[in-house]
């Protein structure tokens, strides 16, 4: 059987990608590493309260992540850690001008960096 | 005017124009205040058909139009995070709604506008109401409304809901949108003119109408402005969206029925929105589009190094900030914080004081409720007693029909009103105050960790607190939980909370004869059961517990009008939903009693009462208790002759077992119905079965344990 695709032999049977897509993928291929880059930051649950931080990444699952994104907890956003509930409970933060309460499990996956004023 | 137009006018005059409005916005922005002012006492609280999401609606007449207003639950976006968002989204694009009023908190523009931008993508007739303008002014923030209207090309109205300012203007704008089918730019001058015209008869409107006006504003005929300059994303995203839109438009005939604009569908496809993906399930037609969307998504995620949600949300917030920069100026950078509110906030979330305050509030709520309830209940009993005397003196004691209808039906009614409503109404009032002032999220914050051990999260404490008053609205209140799993677990746990009726039994029996120590012991056992059931359900029901994500607002002074109207609406819901069932059952049981059909039932129950070590007659009382829990005690007292006589009828251990069983064995019938309504009948029966089983088990253990131990002494 003649392989009519113009992709590499690894992708036998894969549908032919439209011309514009092929070009774009080639153009930005060197950005692929960005996704897997290591992010150095502190967990929101471990940093001291009462200070300003900058969100570096939100590493939660898809559902809660979408919720947090819609509420404004996004990389690059300013966040103030107001307080942490007793008994390793939820964290109260201030984002986009109002207070949010985030459960501990989620908060531990939010990486932040201290903002020096 | 010509003869033909005169006739048309006559018809228009007779038929009122009906405008359907939905209020959409974040929680705690003042939506309820606006809703309350518009609908007053006409508001009803119910459920969306077949869904466990609260639906508040009401109506009013204004300027010759009839407005139906639906207050949507507080939402932060139109995604699939919670059932509330899904239901709201579907409703907003449906043909049941003509105009959406988006209520925004002026002091918190950035986050509030996120929902606004989602609404803009839906291209629905929209009015933007910026509320809390008094606080905005107090903080020396200036908002340029003219610029806002220029940018959004839709009516933007400043509102101070608590003062009633601007509320009716919203309706006037709605009438204008309804009449002209497109937003009228720069309404300030033209609007005044139109307002004057609207105040006259309909005849005047007809003279400026467009030819296709039939009194119906359909979403299709509405000319939504072109807002691409504020809603468009970065180039790499926009090119992909455009391609997807082209593909989607090829199937226009299919997608037309859903009322979603193509751009909205394209964006949601990229975001992997579960509900929208369902529309694309037909593999033959749509597999290409789905694959394309997936490829685009992967490209964007590789390009930006973030997932798609972050990308799209960042773009939207970018656009929001561009708008805010143009319209908002803050004169003074610092504003004086309210020290009292700050201190209150600190205290109520403190590691120690927070819990102390929570305990005090619970105790205080209970105490006040009982105080008021007992007072009113006593009064009601007296009145009913006098009525009964009167009725019997007229009809005689032997009249069967009187007994059935009066004792059963009316007795059931008074028993319910006396037994439940007098406790429930003051309780609702207190809960509404706690809710409106902003305390309840603090309680969720404090209890989240503990709730996790029960398989749910902090918000579940709120219906449980409600459950101390009455399980019926409490179980309905489990609607606030986001997922089915949470709802099921919290409903089961809430139904185990001892309500006011149960408390009367425990206090009346144990408290009176055995002292407060044993009352506390019983409570501890009850909570232990709650804990155990929580653990069991956590393992049994598949899925993981969702984490708490909740906005916590500043404390604020509760609004009297809102509290009273909400309490009334909740009371109405309870009265019209549960009372009929209670009355019918009361009549049925009375019939059984009169025709002596209870003896056979007694015999059937004998093994159970033997197992529990209780006197045989109590079996019937426990059956009655399914209808209304306090009936178990009431009937016991009735049977014994007097309260004191109970001492001779039952041993202390029997009292303990009896109270325990009453506390645990089954939710009262009204509660079972509410559970079924909010989940399904299968689950409601399962929970009832579980609780009966637990009650019998624990009652039996206590009984036989006692027998065992006492045989050694």
Q: Strands, helices and their partners?
A:
The complex is a heterodimer of chains A (117) and B (713).
Chain A lengths: L18 H9 L14 E2 L7 E8 L3 H9 L7 E7 L6 E5 L2 E5 L1 H4 L2 E5 L3
Antiparallel strand pairs in A: 1-6, 2-3, 2-6, 3-4, 4-5
Chain B lengths: L2 H12 L2 E9 L5 H9 L4 E4 L6 E9 L2 E7 L11 H11 L5 E7 L3 H14 L3 E6 L1 H6 L2 E3 L1 H8 L3 E3 L8 H14 L6 H12 L3 H7 L19 H4 L3 H15 L2 H4 L6 H9 L3 H6 L3 H22 L3 H20 E3 L8 H10 L4 H43 L4 H38 L2 H14 L7 H7 L3 H6 L7 H12 L4 H14 L2 H25 L8 E4 L7 H35 L3 H15 L5 H10 L3 H10 L5 H4 L2 H13 L4 H10 L2 H32 L1
Parallel strand pairs in B: 1-4, 1-5, 5-6, 6-8
Antiparallel strand pairs in B: 2-3, 3-4, 7-9
Helix pairs in contact in B: 2-26, 4-16, 11-13, 11-15, 18-19, 19-26, 21-23, 23-25, 24-25, 24-31, 25-31, 26-32, 28-29, 31-33, 32-33
Q: Any idea what the radius of gyration of chain A is? A: 21 Å
What's the helical proportion of residues of chain B? 55-70%
**Number of separate strands of chain B:** 10
Count up the helices of chain B: 33
Tell me the helix content of chain A: 10-25%
**Structural class from helices and strands of chain B?**
alpha/beta
In whole angstroms, the N-to-C terminal distance of chain A is 66 Å
Protein chain pair with the most extensive contact, residues per chain: A-B, 45 and 50 residues
Please give the CATH class of the domain at 42-114 in chain A: Mainly Beta
Task: Report the end-to-end length of chain B measured between terminal Cα atoms.
Answer: 104 Å
Judging by the overall fold, what is the CATH architecture of the domain at 42-114 in chain A?
Roll
The biggest sheet of chain B, with number of strands, parallel, antiparallel or mixed sense and barrel status, is: 7 strands, mixed
Overall outline of chain A: globular
């Amino acid at each position: 059987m003649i392989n009519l695709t113009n992709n590499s032999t690894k992708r036998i049977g894969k549908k032919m990608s439209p011309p514009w897509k092929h070009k774009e993928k080639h153009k930005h291929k060197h950005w692929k590493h960005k996704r897997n880059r290591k992010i150095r930051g502190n967990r929101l649950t471990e940093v001291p309260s009462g200070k300003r931080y900058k969100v570096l990444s939100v590493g939660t699952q898809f559902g809660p992540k979408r919720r947090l994104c819609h509420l404004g907890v996004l990389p690059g956003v300013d966040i103030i850690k107001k307080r942490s509930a007793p008994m390793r409970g939820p964290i109260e933060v201030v984002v986009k001008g109002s207070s949010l309460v985030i459960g501990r499990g989620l908060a531990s996956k939010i990486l932040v960096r201290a903002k020096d004023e | 005017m010509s003869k033909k137009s005169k006739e048309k006018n006559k018809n228009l005059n007779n038929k009122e124009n009906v405008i359907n409005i939905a209020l959409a916005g974040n929680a705690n922005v003042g939506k309820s205040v606006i809703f309350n002012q518009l609908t007053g006492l006409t508001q009803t609280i119910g459920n969306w058909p077949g869904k466990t999401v609260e639906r508040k609606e009401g109506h009013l007449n204004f300027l010759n139009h009839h407005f139906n207003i639906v207050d949507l639950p507080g939402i932060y976006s139109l995604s699939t995070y919670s059932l509330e968002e899904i239901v709201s989204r579907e409703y907003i694009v449906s043909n049941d709604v003509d105009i959406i009023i988006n209520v925004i908190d002026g002091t918190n523009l950035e986050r509030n506008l996120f929902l606004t931008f989602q609404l803009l993508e839906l291209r629905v007739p929209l009015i933007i109401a910026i509320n809390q303008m008094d606080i905005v002014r107090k903080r020396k923030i200036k908002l340029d409304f003219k610029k806002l209207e220029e940018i959004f090309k839709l009516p933007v109205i400043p509102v101070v809901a608590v003062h009633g300012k601007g509320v009716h203007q919203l309706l006037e704008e709605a009438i204008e949108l309804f009449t002209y089918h497109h937003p009228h730019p720069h309404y300030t001058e033209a609007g005044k003119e139109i307002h004057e015209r609207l105040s006259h008869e309909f005849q005047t409107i007809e003279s400026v109408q467009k030819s296709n006006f039939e009194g119906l504003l359909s979403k299709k005929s509405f000319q939504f402005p072109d807002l691409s300059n504020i809603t468009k994303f970065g180039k790499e995203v926009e090119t992909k969206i455009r391609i997807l839109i082209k593909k989607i438009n090829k199937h226009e005939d299919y997608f037309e029925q859903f009322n979603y604009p193509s751009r909205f569908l394209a964006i949601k496809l990229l975001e992997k929105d579960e509900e929208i993906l369902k529309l694309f399930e037909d593999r033959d037609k749509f597999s290409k589009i789905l694959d394309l969307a997936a490829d685009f998504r992967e490209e964007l995620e590789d390009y930006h190094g973030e997932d798609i949600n972050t990308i799209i949300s960042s773009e939207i917030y970018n656009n929001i900030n561009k708008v805010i920069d143009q319209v908002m100026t803050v004169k003074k950078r610092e504003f004086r914080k309210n020290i009292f509110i700050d201190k209150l906030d600190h205290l109520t979330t403190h590691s120690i004081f927070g819990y102390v305050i929570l305990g005090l509030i619970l105790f205080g709520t209970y105490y006040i409720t009982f105080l008021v309830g007992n007072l009113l209940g006593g009064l009601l009993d007296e009145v009913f007693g006098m009525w009964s005397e009167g009725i019997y003196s007229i009809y005689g004691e032997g009249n069967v029909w009187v007994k059935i209808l009066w004792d059963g039906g009316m007795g059931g009614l008074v028993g319910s009103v006396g037994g439940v409503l007098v406790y429930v109404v003051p309780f609702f009032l207190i809960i509404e105050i706690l809710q409106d002032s902003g305390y309840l999220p603090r309680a969720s914050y404090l209890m989240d960790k503990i709730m996790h051990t029960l398989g749910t999260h902090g918000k579940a404490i709120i219906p449980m607190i409600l459950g101390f008053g009455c399980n019926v609205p409490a179980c309905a209140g489990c609607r606030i939980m986001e997922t089915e799993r949470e709802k099921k677990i919290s409903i089961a746990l809430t139904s185990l909370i001892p309500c006011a009726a149960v408390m009367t039994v425990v206090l009346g029996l144990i408290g009176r004869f055995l002292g407060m120590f044993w009352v506390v012991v019983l409570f501890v056992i009850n909570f232990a059961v709650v804990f155990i059931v929580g653990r069991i359900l956590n393992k049994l029901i598949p899925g993981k517990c969702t984490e708490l994500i909740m906005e916590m607002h500043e404390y604020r002074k509760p609004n009297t009008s809102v509290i009273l109207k909400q309490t009334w609406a909740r009371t109405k819901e309870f009265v019209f939903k549960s009372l009929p069932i209670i009355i019918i059952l009361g009549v049925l049981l009375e019939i059984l009693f009169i025709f002596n059909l209870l003896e056979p039932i007694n015999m059937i129950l004998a093994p159970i009462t033997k197992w529990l070590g209780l006197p045989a007659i109590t079996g019937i009382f426990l059956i009655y208790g399914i209808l209304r829990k306090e009936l178990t005690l009431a009937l016991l007292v009735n049977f014994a002759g007097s309260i004191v006589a109970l001492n001779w009828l039952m041993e202390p251990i029997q009292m303990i077992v009896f109270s325990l069983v009453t506390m645990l064995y089954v939710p009262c019938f009204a509660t079972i119905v509410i559970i079924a309504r909010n989940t399904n009948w299968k689950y409601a029966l399962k929970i009832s079965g579980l609780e009966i089983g637990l009650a019998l088990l624990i009652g039996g253990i206590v009984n036989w344990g006692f027998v065992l131990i006492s045989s050694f002494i």
